[in-house]
Amino acid sequence: MQKSYRLRIKGIVQGVGFRPFVAKLAGKLNLNGYIENREMGVEIVLFCAEKELETFLHRLKIEKPAPSKILELSCEEIKTKNGEPDGFIIKASKKNGEITAFIPPDIAICNNCLKEMFNPENRRYLYPFTNCSHCGPRFSIIKKLPYDRPLTTMKEFLICSQCESEYTDPDDRRYHAQTNCCPECGPRYWLETEEGKVFPEEAVSKAIDILEKGGILAVKGIGGFHLMCDPYRESTVQRLRRLKDRPFKPFALMARDIETVKEFAEVSSEEEELLVAPSRPIVLLKKKKDVFEAIAPGTDRIGVMLPYTGIHYLLLRRLPVLIATSGNLSGEMLCAENREAKEKLSHISDAFLFHNREILNRCDDSVVKVVDGKKVFIRRSRGFVPEIVPLPVSSPSKLFCAGGDLKSVFGYVKGNAFYPSQYLGDLQFKLNQDQYLLMTGRFEKLFDLNPDVVVVDMHPGYFSRWLGELIAEQKGAKLVECQHHVAHVYSAMAEHRLESCIGVAFDGTGYGTDGTIWGGEFFFVERSHYHRKGWFRRVVMPGGEKAAKKPDLMATAYLFDAGMSLALEKEKLVQAASIKTSSVGRLFDAVASLLEICHENTYEGEAAMKLEGVASRGGGRVFLPFGLVDSEGAWEVDLRETIREILRLKERRVSIGELSYAFHHLLARVVLEICKKLRDEISENNVCLSGGVFQNSLLLSMCRKILSDSGFFVYTNEQVSPNDEGIALGQAYFYMLKERDLRW
């Protein structure tokens, strides 16, 4: 018997070809009804028998477009007033209530569009903006929901009759593709040289000529500008380093295809899956021998991505690999506007490849690595944002979580959904602060977010805290503090739906409840309650914050603490220092300097990365000692004997590789011993590892193995980065558990 059914689907179902797919599926099954974009996602009404509904739902779930995600699906029988339509139609978008729909991230160009782009018989031959309902820009161009062309920056481009015909044809791949365009009606590229010459025609071929001659090109893409050049020309690479003031920080590479990548890097099946995914992140791969040493000096890994827009494929036709680094001034977010790029990048680039489609929401490339077969985010941005992170509890409040300042990401909570922003960089830079402010406003409009609770870091000097306080004051919202390292632990708990754990938080810096700098912390967490149960013995930071950039200063502090004799000048420097830290990040700096690997951080994490690179070539024959001191029911890790032993072994000419490896293994043993002591005390088997130090593949892998072998269940961040990008998620979960505990 025929009935009427209403389906409501929540998830990433707008802007990914979902409505055209449903219309085609209904047509194949001879079902009448309609689909429309709604404030919560999409609504489908079907007129069919129960068995036909079951068939439809089964095929919907297994055949849906690859970029789409169904998070919730409800189905109910209804009575309709307007009668049954003839066939199945796509209705105009409608908004009747609060927005709970999700926006898709930007999606790499699909294979079908690529084939058209390189087919001389196709009207889109060599057209770099070729896209369809399954690929192309999304988050970077959207102004507001629902996802319709007039509400994106494609509004400026009036669709031509041929594209309109595709848009309205249910059998066409571009049926209801909001970004559909062609050379007649869409955006265009042009080339501008440093001399001011403009080439509206043959822009791409002239750009390739510049690259082949050793030039540096600024290229506008989906989320912003790249600086691109030939990585095989060492003089060009060194010029780029000099002009960008980036002496040692690795550059990312963009390779033509996966076969090219395998010529210079080792690629596992999990890494290949990430490389070819529609999100197209930069994947950190193990180098084959010492290739591209000038691109990633002193490290055993190299960041590689595959092309994800038409312009990338066109530029890579004659050059198989290109450097593709963020087009920015050091420390700032990447440039997104043509005028801005000319002002900031003219001293670096020899020419600009501009286009005339506005980038509304700038978004840097995402960076990931694979450790023990699992994805670890280094930077979560283009291709992933603004996908939500589902939370294990729901909040009656709307939250704004300000995150941290160094690798800034804010987040909002509505119900059980966490909406993370794109990577916004270091908030000491004015541009990044401006973008942070701009994007908070955009997120509130996009997703109908008006927070009544604001959660901030405890650090009194953070810009994110200041802004959180301002938002709370303006909106009359409740202001809540969450300690930095506690937030790290809660971020991993949120991802894995945990309510209790032993939390291990290792990073470079974070304001502690005692006013000192923390960074090597152990906690017992139960719901919204936490207790600090361990830490590394604190040492001073000679020169204050300057010590974070000078590993040799931290080495001096650890030598002094270990009772080693120092030159009078260095001894005075240590004695004059007042800031103390328990940071494992600073400990990595000190050991890297003691082993003559790195004495200065020219970029954040340089010493630690180089120490890991050396350790990965070492072995496991050296065993370093450490001490644990019971301090009023908590454990202090004492490494004074460790430092003395490292120096003794170094004098005996034990290799730097062996000592570096032994240091990593020492930290894993420290984690195990304290976790075992806490398990004996509180009977807890869950361990969460978070904080930027756990981006270290070797240490993370060692900790996972040694803990798992001892019967612990080990959890790490997989949906957000373990670095400070994950702070906002931890702040959210901390408050939500606290709110629930108060209700109970």
What is the secondary structure topology, with strand pairs?
Layout: E1 3-12, H1 18-28, E2 32-38, E3 41-48, H2 50-63, E4 69-77, E5 88-90, H3 111-117, H4 161-167, E6 189-193, E7 198-199, H5 203-212, E8 217-220, E9 225-229, H6 234-244, E10 253-255, H7 258-264, E11 265-266, H8 269-276, E12 282-287, E13 301-305, H9 310-315, E14 321-326, H10 338-345, E15 351-355, E16 367-371, E17 374-379, E18 389-401, E19 411-420, H11 430-446, E20 453-457, H12 463-475, E21 478-482, H13 484-495, E22 500-506, E23 520-526, E24 529-536, E25 539-540, H14 551-561, H15 568-576, E26 580-581, H16 584-594, H17 606-615, E27 627-631, E28 634-638, H18 640-651, H19 656-682, E29 686-690, H20 697-708, E30 713-716, H21 727-743
Parallel strand pairs: 2-5, 8-15, 10-13, 12-16, 18-20, 20-21, 22-29, 24-28, 29-30
Antiparallel strand pairs: 1-3, 1-4, 2-3, 6-7, 6-15, 8-9, 9-14, 10-14, 11-12, 12-13, 16-17, 18-19, 22-23, 23-24, 25-26, 27-28
Helix pairs in contact: 13-21, 14-16, 16-17, 17-19, 19-20
Q: Report the sheet-strand fraction.
A: 15-25%
Main beta sheet: 12 strands, mixed
- Briefly, what CATH class of the largest domain? Alpha Beta
Which topology of the largest domain does CATH recognise?
Nucleotidyltransferase, domain 5
Overall CATH architecture of the largest domain: 2-Layer Sandwich
Report mean pLDDT, rounded to a whole number. 94
The tally of domains stands at 4
